[in-house]
Amino acid sequence: MPDGPLAIGVDIGGTKVAAGVVDAAGTVLRRTRRDTPHRSTSPRVVEDTIVSAVEELMGHGDDVVAVGIGAAGFVAADRATVVFAPHLSWRNEPLRAALGGRLALPIFVDNDANAAAWAEHRFGAGRGESHLVMVNLGTGIGGGIVLDGRVVRGRFGIAGEFGHMQVVPDGIRCECGNRGCWEQYASGNALVREARSLMSAGSPVVSDLFDRVGGDPGELTGPLVTEAARDGDPLARELLGEIGRWLGVGIADLAAALDPGTFVIGGGVSAAGDLLLDPARAAFRRQLTGRGYRPEAAIVAAQLGNEAGLVGAADLARVGAADLAWAEAVDRAERPSG
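The structure assignment produced for this chain is given below.
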């Protein structure tokens, strides 16, 4: 028997739409997956893909109470509108309204990093922690904030864009248009950029990486660097250590602003484990404001992997549906009779 009411979570990324039926314990009972339509397609095509996945899951007869959508992009604080999605054609897209006319369930939209942070808070590495910050290291850096057991979305819904904090004045140019953003120093893109730079310079210290990509720097990826580091390659370990040190610097800044009890590190780069996190912890301790006179937040690896977004979106929708039902019950009770 499933644990508690069921909800459907939908995780929309640049290449796939993953959906699943999730119970109240965070267990995924059923799954389905679709390819994400190309960014040049209309919003309707993406909506069709979401509806197809949800209808497939609902076809099994499960008693589902809500649908949660986790989208990679800016989601307005109303949890209904996708303001901007870089990998899709959504620009101020009223996604809840568009899907609400096609799916007979309450629908809640959230940023995918918020959903992942909530999942780790409820069921993963941050379980039991009331004040949690999740940092996702992928091609860039994103994240989510849970304070006092609630997701912090910000006034306009765009909190958690940690990657665009400036850590180096007049530093490396970022895709956002500014210079010196954190993600230019502590992300998967930064890891690959530094390795490729050494390869292009013909440095002898990258001979192992050259062998892994057949001499073509363009074939190098973050997972390959991580694999080399795990296999003991000194240069790959050095590069991961540098990424980790920058990670610790940025986390110390976040600690000064938000004072969480736990930082959960997710995303593809976090697969490096302690090869990344040990240098991050050391840099964090060196950089932390008031070091030696304040408690230090734990820095831990995420536990839920690629399913965090799906699970978190479902659980946030379940909570939202319960809040909605409670508000409607109170309204009925207070409404004058007759």
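Interim note for the steering committee: The two ends are 42 Å apart (CA to CA). The chain has a mean pLDDT of 91.
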